[in-house]
Amino acid sequence: MATQIVMDTSGDTRHAFDAGDQVALKAAEDRFRELTGLGFTAATRQPDGSSKLARKFDATAQETLFFPRLVGG
Predict the structure, then answer these.
(1) 18 vs 1: CA distance, rounded Å
(2) Which three-class secondary structure state does DSSP give residue 18?
(3) What's the rounded Cα separation, in Å, for the pair 55 and 65?
(4) H or E element: which one contains 63?
């Protein structure tokens, strides 16, 4: 199961999906596009534990983390 983790002011929300299920995969891709369109930064976890900036949806990523846009004050 792959997971998309969305960070926001209330903590985080996790969305698990089966990459082999075309309906779930489409929903995950739509969520990726919606969140990045709203200004969230997406990063995928790499096998060594590091993160890599994701500019496009990656159906093979096991974990994608979405960070909200930071607002300075």
Answers:
(1) 5
(2) coil
(3) 12
(4) strand 63-67
pTM beyond 0.85: yes
**Which residue is associated with the tokens 């995969």?**
25
* CA atoms 17, 22, 63, 33: torsion sign: negative
Is the confidence at residue 70, as pLDDT, over 80?
Answer: no
Q: How far apart are CA 27 and CA 49, in angstroms?
A: 26
Q: How many residues does the chain have?
A: 73
User: Cβ(30)–Cβ(41) under 8 Å?
Assistant: no
By C-alpha distance, which of 49, 45, 48 is closest to 62? 45
40 with 10: CB under 8 angstroms? no
Are 15 and 3 in contact by the 8 Å Cβ rule? The answer is yes
**For the chain, which domains are there?**
2-67 (3.10.20)
57: DSSP letter:
-
